[in-house]
Design goal:
heterotrimer; A alpha/beta; B mainly alpha; C mainly alpha; A: 30% helix
Chain lengths: 344, 325, 299
Amino acid sequence: MCSTRACKSSDSSTVTDATISPITLEVRNLSTHFFTREGVAKAVNDVSFSVAPGEIMGLVGESGSGKSMTGYSIMGLIDAPGKIVGGNIFLKGRDLRGFDAEQMRDVRGNRIAMIFQDPMMTLNPVLRIDTQMIEAIQAHEPVSREKALARAREALVQVGIPSPDERLFAYPHQFSGGMRQRVAIATALLMKPDLIIADEPTTALDVTIQGQILYEMQKLCRVSNTALIWITHDLSVIAGLADHVCVMYAGRIVERGSVAQVLDQPRHPYTRGLIDSVPSHSGTRGTTLKQIPGMTPSLLALPSGCAFRERCHWADNTCRDDPAERTDMAAHGVRCCHPLEGQA
Amino acid sequence: MLVYIIRRVFQSALVLFLMSLLVFVGVFAIGNPIDILISAQADQKDIEAATAALGLDKPLWSQYWVFLKGVAAGDLGRSFAFNIPAIQLIFERMPATFELALVAMVMAVGLGIPLGLLAGLKPNSWVGKLIMTGSILGFSLPTFWVGLLLIMVFAVQLGWLPSNGRGPTTNLFGIPVSFLSVEGLQHLLLPALNLALYKLSLIIRLTRAGTQEALLQDYVKFARAKGLSSARVVGVHVLKNIMIPIVTVIGLEFGSVIAFAIVTESIFAWPGMGKLIIDAIAVLDRPVIVAYLLVIVTIFIVINLVVDLVYSLLDPRVRLSESKG
Amino acid sequence: MMNAPASLAVESPWQRLRRDFMESRLAMFGLILLGLVVFVAICAPLISMQNPYDLKQVSIEDSRMAPGSTMSTGKTALLGTDEQGRDLLSAIFYGLRISLMVGVTSTFFAMLIGLSIGLFAAYAGGRTDSAIMRLVDIQLSFPAILIALILLAVLGQGIDKTIVALITVQWAYYARTVRGAALAERQKEYMEAARVLALPTARVIFRHLLPNCLPPLIVIATVQVAHAIALEATLSYLGIGVPVTEPSLGMLIRNGFEYMLSGKYWISFYPGIALLITIVAINLVADQLRDVLNPRLQK
């Protein structure tokens, strides 16, 4: 289920001139580099995508692919030695890159919220839950403590936490992992943001809890029309949750499209490899598990041209040149010299 | 919780008892104070009389038993040199030492935590590096040498502050204190600074390390992602987390501050317990030595106990898990 | 994620240690300074103008002369003379000798004793281990100066007694560190392997365990030498350390203290500077060693 308008291809450069654009987030040619003693790591390399209100986009890749860094770049949380070196980030039409520190601070937690992977360490262990939720509200709005407390309580109810009144006065270590993540989600929803970026929020949780959280997130986003970017390495999560997906490798987007397109008809060898390496029920027992040969290259020592060519079955000399992204009529984009055709 | 307290108190009492035994045996078994207190012309009879009067002719275990009975009654013997009860002598000098130690701790904490925070937040700036270098110096230089330097610069060369003695005292809740008058403060400043320096460096280093570690934690990232101001992130989130180990250290260090006061008191001729013990050792005034050591050990044990309790109050993880099981 | 390309050079741990150490100019400066101090201490009789403790060479007429003045023997006292007429520079050289000797000797023996006890505790395990560690904890919870004070009050003055006191103060720290390191190393696989191969325990300890526990020990020992020197100076200053006949730097400072207020500052000040230089040099070296040997900072 994908509205073609949402799956914009990267080489279209028009954006509406209206100050408030219907698209929640548009990222254009974003590049974030890390300048270390050993060299420059291009963590995010010319990345573009957009997300519409109420839409869920999956950002898939292995560790080191740059997916988390993309999220941080949008939030403005890149610290030295990293720096956003190019591109634009349009939040409802306004370019965040032009914002100063105070303006960015106002956006964070307010218009864009982020959820992290490990809820034990994201919640400060020595502060109570109510303190941590109330401060998220009071940082952006002059609201009394009582009102803020009431809103926090409401948010906890929304994410399905039982006995919210007691829970508010508890400490993080008194919650289970799944509950803590729900608290983090509740905190993210407090200011009714336009966009939520979730960075592998269920990776550290049991599969059953994971399922519950996914369901909740999906429901909440539809109801409040909040855009959601779900960063993960787990394709199966994306399959059940997202509307459209971008696959990242070594800092670049190598394939994009609706979930149906990308997962059923992958065109990039890496995507294909990812899908194939998931053990499935349909294979006969005793067949070897498929894997992508080789290892993710270090961002400091990327091969020239297509970053995947050293692990790609179909690579040849033309892959030494950097492939440009090409999009077909159905807005299914791929960055590859020899995109795969057709089979499932 | 109560069980925990009782257990700790019992352990402390045991340690105290063992220490008293060690101290007693150590001090009494070696050295003969009679030789110092009796004039050289005394003949054998006088020596014997004096020995008997001080109870030094009885066997060791008997002397210890007398001693224990005395302790139970609150009497730790009379000072050989001053001929007043040793414990009274110590209590007379205690307020001076405590005042010095407290002011020094306040200085060390009041300056140490902000400086350490600053050094942790901006480790590569010139301010951060300056603070760190200063702390290395403060940590490695012997206290008495710094005291020397302070006297040389501020008392001799500049003549701003007095170099010895305690200022005039006024009574605060019945305890004589000297910080309530300007002159008292002048006398207090240099010795307190001297005493504080070592602890100050320690606290700076601890706070800095704690801050640097805290800044890498996820909860700081999350706090920033919520859009909290830097002031709140540092002032509330970071600070509360690093306070716990720092408070523990501060508490434990207070005891050692009292011990280190020995040196400072000697340099600045501050009339406290420390100077008393040095003088007592020089003349082998056993009752005073024993009384001082016992008092100090007791102080230590009490401090350790209090710190443990405060720590469990501050860290909710410890407190709540204790109450559950 | 941000992995540096693997270094192709193969060098021994010692070479790498030296290379990393030399990266800090401050540490190199400290090392040079330290070398100078040690040199002076060892060669004191050869480079001093006079032996300040040989009464025949000292004249009371020269007492309390300002730096740069000429003594009765015709030589110049670069740093002045003390109240006995001794040339201060020579006194400092000899004093350095004693300070360093006391510091290094006590640290060495404390390390030896602490190491043995710590290893023993780690291997004995169980209640022996707990008992020893309780003792260690109790001792460590008291400030060094107090323990030294008690000991010296009982034992009296003297260089050997001071060394004993310093050893007593320091051993516990080594014992605890070594025991902790030994326990951690025991869990590691190479120890399993050594056990499986039925290597004799002594060999396991010396060839396998010890070299891995060594880095933190080196750092601690270096810092402790500075502490020992500082503590000895403090004790001597208080009059309960080394005797007047063989003064260390601390004793020299004590002797000169009473002249501070009358303006004859050099008698205390210059020995103090010598002490400062020694301690700072050791600390500079120790700090860099700590950074270099810290496995967590190994990149």
